[in-house]
Every structure is written in structure tokens, then in C-alpha cells.
């Protein structure tokens, strides 16, 4: 039988053949010992059926080097309905099946392996499933009701289970056994799918099922009786080959538009940080205040702990001797640990820059994926919505300093998994996956997870009110899945959370003052880093600092969102999103809301949460960040509706309004400046002559590092964390009540030096101050005091000279007081 090309990768039989009810396609490679019995069993069963069904059996010889063709030829002489298709050389099961299926004429097509591990009698079960309106019925060894009469070798079974797990996750979720060689298809759909296939190996099964899934053709997984047959042609390296084919299949399934969207997000992220990437080791984002120093230190200390197998939840490198509870300081182990090799090779500045740049990109890509999957498939609409959700003004503000608030790629994945739970199809699996996702997010940032949970709860309540029928069907699988998620998550995070809340240097809450909520005006004003409409003076007046401009969406976007909600109000999704956005905006105003242009202050809804555990440490203004994805999804819905409108005028007006709302808030690149040089005393290791780290001595910067001046953290990372120091920039406890504060618990001498730094006034220093200083130096195990050039450094120098009783020495660009010398 000849094969003629019908299209790319497709083949058809010689013209003139007639249509039959059933085609059985068998791929064969060096199967002379098993194929004869298989053909006898199949043809005998089909002849004995006696129900008038017309059939054919097509054996595809995939370049065999034994007597496989002779076996088929002999069978053809006995039964003309057995046909032979040949391939000049061995190319794999996928190629053989493509030849055979595209050469078939059956209204139904059965593909089965040459060993007939699933008996031909099982065809009856597949037939019933196909008769129920399915387009494919695939035999399964993993579905309840299946019978395995003879197992494979345990290693092969384990590899098969692992492979199926990957296949379900990456290609065809919901199908437990894609590789069982016994599948029945609707003939025309099978020929279309196999003609479009490209894989030549064992991965063909996955590719065909994925084609059916994407085409919306229903597939049934049917339990069958199965027995392993000796003589399998699957070799150990074939498992790796299938994995490679699966990877190639996944890569080919990515649309060009999706790839371009991700590349565009990456470009946007790089442009945002362009000033820093000019020279990442010597550039600083001034609007990060001291946070860049702090976060680089976090990455450095994590890498140091990983390399030396130390406890990643605690250190005494800062805040000596009490130390720092790293778990209570958002050290982002979920990123800083994987980035350890980068930190060690390229340094913490490059590592942090990559984490923030790639984190923003991944976050945008995740929102894009969620919008395409759940909201609308128009790629332009999804791109615009995801870009707004990721690069909205509050996100850009946090991009200066807070990677935990911009590396949010897990949030869309968590939202999608919660929605899957509501569907109730695979509650156990989705619950377990959700628990693992929540666990990982805890090691990325707990406060963003709390805010996301608030947003999801607000959305769920609104949706349930609008669609009680959906809520009635969804609440049971949702709560069951959430329970499973907790059972998975809690054991994994129990120890880290116990360390965070009850371990060394843990604290109860962090007080942010009475003005941490947004002004109502901030919601409609423009942020400092908006390229077109940015207003630094207004933004600073309406926010805590440049890293906490948590609203500033601009009045044009607010007006557009209002118009979208009115125009699409009939959609339940829009109603739920509108409620979520408005509620989040109101909560972000804080416990007391000042009415603009008046002296009136009214209670805010945040007052109900402000003193509750966990919420008491939240900066309430950050709740407005929930509005970013809400606005992004609303925007995607609107653009999707506009591009589908048949009226060009409507499209033009609508898209013009979208552009007018977005252009004012397009972010400008973050400000970047030259970084202060690390003094040679630190950089060239001169400090080692003054501080005996073997005896636990510390290096004491003057004044001690604190949240207002943490440049000493940069010294420490430059010295590869080889010395400890008191003070620092972190969250720790203060007093008997262990209230959270920024920085180390103050001592008399640290307060004195800090006061001189900010005031420039040298106080009267008497014996009592000198005695107290000696006690504090002993507490810190100080080996040397180091004063770098800075504001009021002359006054600081004079103060230290009076405390120590002698002048310092100018060494390596700093003043040094060696405390080993006698005064």
C-alpha cells in the first residue's frame, strides 16, 4: 500500500477505497514475535461480532529490520481486510500512527499497540463512551474500575506515574493515563488531529489529546483490563525522550502573541529599572530611602546561610547581640534562596535587581495568563489589563524598595486555583496544589497574601450575592478544598511561623502611626513617577513617603472605570469587581477618614480591623493596591467588548477613552543616582586589624545604623558579612510588651550619637556619659568605632572623642577609635 502526501505531516490511502465503520491502526516495529497473535485476536473478534460492521486493520511497519512485514503479508493473504503501510526507516510510534490514521477510512478509528496489552474485547467499553456523544474514548489503567492483571516492573511503573503527573500538569490536566495504547476516536476528528501532529515519538498521545482538548471535543477516560506483555520496545531513555517531546509540545503551543506579550513585559520592567541597570553595583534608587541597602543585605545574608548551612530564620550580623528574626522581616526566602548562586557570583546588588526586574515580568505574565484563561481571549485586551495590574502607580512606587509587593506572580495562580475549586471537578488535587501555592507565597510575602485574601473574600461575597445559584453549587467544594489546602500548608509553615511570632527577637505588631491610610484625594491624584502627569509635591503631601504611594490611580482612570461598570453592569463579574474595588478603596482610607477641604473626620471601615491580629501591623493604605488588578480586569473586559463591536465609531471612541485614561499614569523610569563609595577601610579589609572577629568583637559605625541611615549594611555586604555590628535596619521588639519597632532597641549611647547626627549639637559629656558609653561598648563587644564622612561629622567626631577620651585616627577614609587602646 502506498502513502501519498496530503498536507504537512499527513498521508492518505490510495484513492478508490471505500468508507468502513471501524479502522484499527497498529504501529509495529520489529514485532514479528507478537504481531501474529495480535492480528489473529483482532480479526477473529471482529469477524465473530457478526453485527454487520465493516472494518479494516492497518498495520504500519515503522522500518522494521525483522520479519514484521512478512507476518502482515501472511495475515493479508488470509484476511484481505488487513492492510500494510510501510515506512522506509524507523521514525517512531508517532510517525507510524500518523501514517496509519491518515490512511484510514473508518467512521471510528481504534489505535492499539502491537502487544494488545488491553484485550480487543475492551473495545465494547470504548464504543459505549463514544456513543454517549464523546469524540474520543481512551483506555485507562489509572481510572477507578480498571484492572491490571499483570504489572510492569516497579521502576517502569514509578517512571510512568511521574510522567503522567508532569503530563497532567503541563499538557492535558484531568486525564490520568495518556499513554495506555488503546484509544478509540471519531474518524474524521482523528484524521484531522493526526494530520496536524508533529511529534514522531511516544509523545504523540499527549499531542493528540491536547488537540482534542483545545478543539473543545469531549474525551472520555474509560477503565480497561490491561496486562503487561513481555518484549516491550520502550527503553529507559524513551522516558527522557517523551519529556523532551512534551517540552517541545509545550513550547510550540505558546502563541506568538503570548510570547510577544511576555517580552514586552520584560522590556517594560527593564526600562523601569534602566537607571539602575546602567551599573547595578554602583547605582542606587534614592526613592527606596534605605530599603535597597536593607534588601541587598537580606539577599546576602540568605546566601551566606545557605552556603554555611546556618539557620536562615535568624542572624546576629545586625542588631548584635540580640540579633534579627529574619522570618519576621520578610526576607523573601522563596526568592533569596533560589537566587543564592547569583548572589554569590554577581553580588547582592545584581541579584536583587534581577529578582525585582524578573519578578515584575513574571507578575505581569501571570495576570495576562489569568485574564486570557478566565476573562477574555483577546490578547491585546489581556495585555493591557495585565500591564495596568502590574505597572499601576502603587506598584511602581513599591518597585523602588519592596520586592515583596511587586513579586506577586503567585497571586493570579492562587486565584485561578480557588476558582477551580469552585468548579468542583478535582477538589482533592486543586486543594493540595492551593496549599502548596500558599506555602510558597508565605515565603515570598505574608502581607501581600493577606491583602490578596481580603480581595478574594470581597469578590466572593459580591459574586455570591449576585449569583446565589452559583454560590450554592460552589461553596461545598470550595470549603472542602480550602480545608485540604490548610492541611497541606500548616504543617509546612508551622515551624517558620512559630519562629516568626514566638522565636528570638519576635514582636507583637508594628505601629505605623495614625496617618497610614490614604487621603481620598490620593485615589484621584497622580503619582510622582507618572511620566506625563506626575506631581512630586502633591504625591509627597498625600503619602507617607515615595515608597508608599499606594493609590494615585488618577481621575481619568477612575472615570473610565465608572463608565465601564455602568456599560457592562449586566455581567456578574463586573458587579463583583466593582464592589471589590470600591470596598478596597474605602478600607485603604484608614480608621478615620478626613473629608477633603473641610475639618470633618468620619469613621472608616478599617476601624473594624485595625486592632485585630495580623491587621494591626498592616499599613492600611496598601489595601488600595487591590484596586490595581480590579482595574486591570475591568479594562480587559472593556477592550474585549470594544474590539468585538461591529461599529467602528464605538471602537474609536472607546479605545480613545482608554488611551486618555492610561497615558497620564504611564510610569517614568525610577530615579537612580551614583552610590556612595564604601570606605577603603572596609573595602580593602583594613578593618580586620581593629576587630577580632574570632573573639566575637563587632565593628561599630558612628552613629549606629538605623532606618534613617543604613549605609553600614552596604559596608557589611561589601566585606562579605565578615563582621557583626550593633544597630541596623530591621523590625524587632522593644520593651517588655515587645512592640515592633524599626531598628534595634536603643541604648543611651546610640541615642546620643543619633541625636548629634540629626541636630549637629554636641551635648555636655561628663563622667556619667563616659561610664555609660563603656558599658554600651562592652554590651556590643565593640572592637572599634568607625566614623565615615557625613553630615555633622565634625560634631560626631568631637562627641566620640569626649566619650572615648582620645582622638581618633584617620585610616582608609574614615576616623577610627581602636577600643583595645587605653584612653
TrEMBL record:
InterPro entries: DPG_synthase, Glyco_trans_2-like, Nucleotide-diphossugar_trans. The keyword Disulfide bond does not apply. The chain crosses the membrane at residues 259-278, 342-370, 449-466, 478-502, 552-569, 576-595, 623-643, 652-670. It is found in: Endoplasmic reticulum membrane. Pathway: Protein modification; protein glycosylation. The keyword Transmembrane helix applies. It catalyses: a di-trans,poly-cis-dolichyl phosphate + UDP-alpha-D-glucose = a di-trans,poly-cis-dolichyl beta-D-glucosyl phosphate + UDP. Its EC number is 2.4.1.117. It is a single-pass membrane protein. This is dolichyl-phosphate beta-glucosyltransferase. Residues 23-155 form the Glycosyltransferase 2-like domain. It is an enzyme of class 2 (transferase). Its main location: endoplasmic reticulum. Keywords: Endoplasmic reticulum, Glycosyltransferase, Membrane, Signal-anchor, Transferase, Transmembrane, Transmembrane helix. Belongs to the glycosyltransferase 2 family. Coiled coil: none annotated. It holds the Pfam family Glycos_transf_2.
